[in-house]
Amino acid sequence: DTYQMGGGYFLYDTCSQDMLALDKHDHRPHPERVELPRGPPPGSAEYPNTAGEYACGQERASAAWLNLQEVQEAAHVRLVGKDRFDFFTDLKYNKTAFSLLDDYKSSLIPRYRILQYSGDADPCVPHVGTARWIDSLKLPVAKRWRPWYPPGGGGFPAGYTQVYAGEGVGSTFTYTTVRDAGHMVPRYKPSQALHMIRQFLQEPPAEAAAYV
User: Fold this and answer.
1) Mean pLDDT, 10 residues at a time, over the chain (212 residues)?
2) Which residues, 6 or more positions from 8, have their beta carbon under 8 angstroms from its beta carbon?
3) What is the spatial distance between Cα 75 and Cα 84, in angstroms, rounded to a whole number?
4) Which of 59, 148, 171, 209 has the smallest set of CB atoms within 10 Å of its CB?
């Protein structure tokens, strides 16, 4: 279980303590976790994250920005029961289903075009696990596993994609990986994520699957 390894959201992250400094609630504790001091890590905003496309310290900057009154007014949100916004809550919820695989197979895939994507550097929800549950659906393959290329990518693949045929008219299930992206793909690879989603939404199914 890669979560137990302490990998977090990005396998190659050099800014991991930025998120840890904000984290007040760990809903999945394990005995081997090393507790780090809370608060902004020294120099966290002073060095680059060479593996990603964002600067260190963005979590703290985002929290400060979202606590500005003018930002909250523009977003039409208000704080209820607390003085400041933060990224972590004590939200209580109950699981209503052990698995949604049957729903995918019987209800979703026959009716819709679906894009399921994973960052291939995501230790939290590894892409190999996603590929495994997709394989368990035993869907017919419409376009086999192949690289996809965004504009301005220098000829390097941004990841890999495979398209499965749905049962309904125009329904497809596309599984795509994004190279060197962590759990929140648009955060780590924003331009590639934008191109992937834009192509999927704007193009006919066959062309959208190619991302070229």
Assistant:
1) 59 61 44 45 42 61 89 90 77 81 92 94 92 95 93 90 84 93 90 92 58 48
2) 16, 19, 123, 124
3) 15
4) 171
Instruction: Kindly provide the residue ranges of all beta strands, DSSP E only, lying in the chain, ordered along the sequence.
Output: 114-119, 141-148, 159-165, 172-178
Q: Are 186 and 192 in contact (CB under 8 A)?
A: no
Task: For residue 105, give the DSSP letter.
Answer: I
The Cα 156–Cα 141 span in angstroms is: 25
Sheet with 172-178: list strands edge to edge.
Answer: 114-119, 172-178, 159-165, 141-148
Q: Which two tokens mark 193? A: 């994520």
What is the domain partition of the chain in residue ranges?
Answer: 2-74, 101-208
Domain at 101-208, CATH class: alpha beta
